[in-house]
Amino acid sequence: MKHLLVLTGAAALVLVAVVGIAGLILSDGEQTAPSAGSDGPASGEEPPDAWETRIEVTGDRSGTIESDDTNLLRVADDPESGLYLDQMVFDGLNIFLDPGDCPLRLDEIDLSRFEGLARLTISCEGVNDVQGNNTIALEGIYVTSAAQVLPPPSDDTGGTLQLSGDVEAEMMVRPLAWYVQGDDSLIYEELGDNFAPSLELTAAAGVVSVAGVFDQVNLIFFTAQPGDCSVETQPVEQLADRERVQLTIDCPRLESETFEPGQQPEIVSVRGAVLIDRIAVES
After folding, report:
1. For residues 160 and 100, what is the distance between their CA atoms, to the nearest angstrom?
2. pLDDT band at residue 208, thresholds of 50, 70 and 90?
3. DSSP string, 149-165
4. Which of 14, 175, 240, 274 fits as disulfide partner to 157, beta carbons 3.0 to 4.6 Å?
5. Which residues fall within 8 angstroms of residue 173, CB to CB, at 6 or more apart?
6. Rounded to two decimals, what is the model's pTM?
7. ∠ at Cα 101 (7, 62), nearest 5°?
8. What is the per-residue pLDDT across 111-152, written as a single tens digit (0 to 9) for each?
9. DSSP letter assigned to residue 103
C-alpha cells in the first residue's frame, strides 16, 4: 500500500464560481429561448467549479469541506481496491479508514492545470471516528495533485548528484517520474523527510530542464536559470507501462538563494546522472 500525503499547495485549486444564467427574452408577452449569440455556457462546457473541491458531510457532524480544507484529507492507493480515503480530520473528529471503507473514483487527470490536477468523486457512508462515537457520510468532488494518484516511480529510479565548490556534497535524488499527457508534462520526485524535492525539474516539448537543486544535508537551495544547466536524455529500457530514461545533468555554476542584505551566495557545480520513469497519462 502506498500512502500519499495530500498537500494543500498542490492539491487544491481555488476558483471563483461564475454562473451564467441564460435569461428569457420576453417578446409580445411570450417567452423565447436566448439566441445563439447569448452569454450562456456552451454545450458540453464544464461548470466553472468543476475543478474545485466540495464535499458535503452529513450525519452526527455536518458541514462542507472545500478547497482550503483539503490538507485535512489523506489518500492511499491499495493494489487490490485502488484509491481510497485513508485519513481525515473534520470538526474535531479523527478518522482512519481501511481499503474499501471509502473508495475514490478517479474522474479525470489534467496536467495542464496548476502543475497537474486530478479530480475524484467521493461517496461513502458509515464512516466512524476513532472513538466510534460519531458516524458521518461523505459526498462530493475532491481535487488534488495529479502526482498523488498517478502510478508511482519505481524504487530503482533517482540516483546521486555531486556538488563541488563552496559546498562539497553527494546529493541523493529520490525516485523520479516524468508524466506526459499530450504536450503537457509533470516531473515528480518522491518526498523525503524534508518534504521537498532534491532536484527541481521541468519539462516542455520533451525537453527536460533543471529549475533548482536542494542540498538537503546543508539545507541550501541553488537556483538554476535557463541555460545554467544541460540535461541529456537517453532511453534505457522499455517496460510494460513506462519507459526508463537516464538524465545526465551538468550545471557548471549555480548560486544559492540569499535572504539577508550583503549575504554572499554559495557557488557550486552540480554534475551526475539519474534515472527517471517516463509514464504516459491518458487525456
Report:
1. 38
2. very high
3. TSPPPPTT-EEEEEEEE
4. 175
5. 158, 159, 160, 161, 189, 198, 199, 274
6. 0.76
7. 70
8. 998 889 999 999 999 999 988 889 999 999 999 999 889 999
9. B
